[in-house]
Every structure is written in structure tokens, then in C-alpha cells.
Design brief:
By secondary structure, the chain is an alpha+beta fold. Helices cover about 55% and strands about 15% of the residues. Strands 1, 2, 3, 4, 5 and 6 form a six-stranded antiparallel beta sheet that branches.
Length: about 200
């Protein structure tokens, strides 16, 4: 059977143009119905795919949010009493950089103060281990008898705060700080002083 376009072209040349025209109209109606039905099926399929994609997307987002919400993170900002010798600074930060589940965010050396502020973040246990490793390395490399700087200092590692980021309370960080201070004193034989939230007595807060 000729296509509707060809039938339409025959209208002006054949005697039965009206009939042909009627057949064209009927064919066009049938095509329109089939096309409408097909479009409806396509629309339904698209809606189904969209709904599936939305559910999958929501599921992924939920999973990501759950993982994020479940992630426990703390930050550590030790101040090491060396701000001029880049090689010493690199050796102190090396065990922090190489620690698993820890990300080194910043190393900020000060020439005048002769101290470096290091910032790293990660899971609590990993951060505590990295902090201990940094303190140990600083004690091995820094001789406080020769240290000079504009900032008051108490040791090779001057301060070692633990800060809650997500999934951890300040009280939990205080307990971690106390345990870390005790470990540094017991294993490295370095006197420690707990202050602020980790203080053992009210007057040190």
C-alpha cells in the first residue's frame, strides 16, 4: 500500500481522489492513534525509568548520608617548637602524613616564633596514633636548650589539642586527650599538662 504522502499526492491526479482522500484520512487517523499509543507507552516507560532513577538516587544519597553521619572525625592541631628548619619540620610531619585514615591539612611554620602549627584530621584512633608519632619524633629532633623564639613555649610539642569534627563529643575528645597525655608521659617520659575541657582540676580549665 502506498504511503499516506504518496496517496495524498494522487488526490489531484485521480478521479477517485475523494476516496483516496478518505483512505488517507483514515490511514492518518490510524497512524495518529498508533502514534499516540506508542507515545503513551514511551511516556510511561520514561516515567518508570525516572522513578527508578529517583529511587536509586535517593538510595545512594541515603547511603552516602548514612556513611557520612556514621563517620567519626576529630582534628588535631599540634604546635611543634621548630619553625625554621624545613628538614626537621618534614621529619616531624612524616609519620602524620603516612598514617592511615589521617589527612594532613596544613603545615604553617613561623620564622619569628620558631614553631610550626600542624593541622590534620581523621578517625579518632588514627589521629591519636599520628599525634603520638609526631610528638615522639619532635622529642627526638628538637633540643629545647637551644630553642629561641618570640612565642612562649613549654616543650618540643608545645600544645596538642584534639577537636571534635563529627560523630564525636567534646567530652569524648577530652577523654582521648587525657589518655594520650598519660601515654606520652608513660612511654616517652615527657611531662604533660591537661587544660581546658581535658583539665583534671577546675582551675586549669
Amino acid at each position: 500500500m502506498p504511503s499516506p504522502d504518496l496517496l495524498g499526492a494522487q488526490i489531484s491526479h485521480g478521479r477517485s481522489g475523494f476516496f483516496l482522500c478518505g483512505r488517507v484520512i483514515l490511514q492518518e487517523k490510524r497512524c495518529a492513534i498508533r502514534k499516540k499509543s506508542l507515545n503513551l507507552k514511551i511516556e510511561r516507560a520514561c516515567v518508570h525509568r525516572t522513578e527508578c532513577a529517583m529511587r536509586e538516587s535517593e538510595g545512594v544519597a541515603t547511603n552516602k548520608n548514612n556513611r557520612y553521619m556514621a563517620k567519626r572525625l576529630i582534628e588535631c592541631v599540634p604546635n611543634f617548637s621548630e619553625g625554621r628548619d624545613k628538614d626537621v619540620i618534614a621529619q616531624i610531619t612524616a609519620p602524620i602524613t603516612s598514617a592511615a585514615d589521617v589527612r594532613l591539612l596544613d603545615v604553617d611554620p613561623g620564622e619569628a616564633t620558631n614553631r610550626t602549627v600542624v593541622t590534620f584530621v581523621g578517625e579518632p584512633e588514627a589521629v591519636v596514633e599520628a599525634a603520638f608519632a609526631g610528638v615522639r619524633r619532635a622529642a627526638e629532633l628538637i633540643d629545647m636548650r637551644r630553642h629561641k623564639g618570640a612565642h612562649p613555649r613549654m616543650g618540643a610539642t608545645d600544645v596538642l589539642p584534639l577537636i571534635p569534627v563529627s560523630g564525636v563529643t567534646l567530652d569524648e575528645c577530652a577523654e582521648m586527650a587525657r589518655a594520650l597525655a598519660r601515654r606520652i608521659a608513660d612511654e616517652l617520659h615527657i611531662p604533660t599538662y591537661c587544660y581546658e575541657q581535658a583539665a583534671f582540676t577546675p582551675e586549669r580549665k
